[in-house]
Design goal:
By secondary structure, this protein is α/β, with parallel strands linked by helices. Helix content is 36%, strand content 24%.
Length: 384
């Protein structure tokens, strides 16, 4: 059985690796001429680690990543609204949350595949439900087409032309890697009036930071570092220092979009949608990449040992719809203006009830078990 995967992001590469582990012949088509990943850092939660275990790289992810320590949500003045215990979370869910460079995860996924299985510089013009893929290099046929072509998926638009496209939330986001020479950063997310700043220490003395703020769509400024300092330079330590240390040429900025209504299905005949192409969501739960990884192993199971693409839709659509909605709800909470004091008071009160409540709220997202199937690891290893 042959599968063609459109897109070599985390979802597409994981899908190819999972299908290969189920005995499929795979080919990944990527329009970029390199696999240099867009982005800086990302969190892998226990649900994603369980999925990565199936394709043989879960332990390597744990080795190369940084375990998220105690943290929580803070006010701009540094006061804590809620605290979380990393030890309690790891005990509850069987694994810690880890943070790593996106590039490291891409390298690990790529190491599972042979170079000949990844076609770079190939543009996909169209994909047909009968298994035909028309590209810039010709036409090919497949038993399965996996559309992992991102939030602006052309395949999704072609399959569901009457469905609403992803909509702008009104928030723009920055991502950056910086250094914290004093190692004062803790895992935290700070909420202000419509503003958010996240701090995630990672290996090598680096810190992965992200921020969101209201802005008109498609807005950019000549100096994004200066803009971040304008917005967050008066917030609690170490945020100003982290921003001062940042390389302005490596600050990424993207508007945040979401799908206002879930798709009616995640497949049509031989085509399946995966990751952001299937269920674009706001980043507030840290589940975008995690859900794409879940998609990949469920898909490989269903098309090999289950009920095919229809089984994939049945298994994934209810879960991803719920997580999309929950993430959007949190996004709206961060955007409150005059009601911010009421929000903060409610969060502080909830936080006083103890970490068990926070863990119970997270459980429906993180307590996920991969499908039982026979998996063959083709992992060839990668040097640290």
């Amino acid at each position: 059985m042959k599968a063609t995967v459109i897109g070599a992001g985390i979802g597409g590469l994981t899908a190819a690796a999972a299908l290969k582990a189920q005995g499929w012949t795979v080919r990944v088509l990527e329009r970029s001429t390199t696999l240099e990943p867009v982005g800086s850092g990302l969190a892998m939660m226990p649900n994603a680690l369980r999925a990565l275990d199936l394709i043989g790289i879960g332990d390597r992810v744990r080795e190369l990543a940084t375990f998220a320590g105690d943290g929580g949500i803070r006010r701009p003045n540094g006061g804590w609204l809620s605290r979380t215990s990393a030890e309690a979370a790891a005990a509850r869910f069987g694994d810690p949350t880890v943070v790593m460079l996106r590039a490291t995860l891409v390298d690990l996924l790529q190491s599972v595949l042979d170079p000949a299985e990844i076609g770079l510089g190939v543009t996909v013009d169209s994909a047909s439900p009968d298994g035909t893929v028309t590209t810039s290099t010709g036409e090919e046929r497949a038993d399965l087409i996996v559309a992992a072509d991102g939030i602006g998926s052309r395949v999704r638009s072609a399959l569901f032309p009457d469905h609403p496209e992803p909509r702008y939330t009104g928030l723009t986001a920055w991502r950056l890697l910086t250094t914290d020479p004093d190692k004062t950063g803790a895992f935290s997310e700070t909420w202000g009036r419509g503003l958010v700043f996240g701090v995630n220490p990672i290996a090598g003395g680096q810190v992965y930071c992200y921020a969101t703020a209201p802005a008109p769509a498609n807005t950019t400024v000549p100096d994004e570092k200066r803009e971040l300092l304008r917005l967050f330079g008066s917030w609690h330590a170490p945020i100003p220092t982290l921003l001062q240390q940042a390389d302005p040429t490596r600050i990424l900025r993207n508007d945040i979009h979401y799908l206002p209504r879930a798709l009616p299905a995640l497949h049509r005949d031989r085509i399946v949608l995966l990751g952001d192409a299937a269920h674009p969501m706001t980043p507030n739960l840290g589940q975008g990449a995690c859900q794409a990884i879940e998609d990949a192993v469920v898909l490989a199971h269903e098309v090999t040992n289950g009920t095919g693409p229809a089984g994939y839709t049945a298994a994934r659509l209810p879960r991803t719809t719920t997580i999309m909605a929950k993430s959007r709800q949190i996004s709206r909470l961060t955007q409150l203006g005059a009601l911010t004091p009421l929000r903060d008071a409610a969060m502080w009160t909830t936080g006083r009830l103890g970490p068990n409540l926070v863990l119970r709220q997270a459980a429906p997202v993180i307590d996920w078990t991969p499908p039982k199937s026979e998996w063959t690891s083709h992992h060839s290893g990668i040097e640290s």
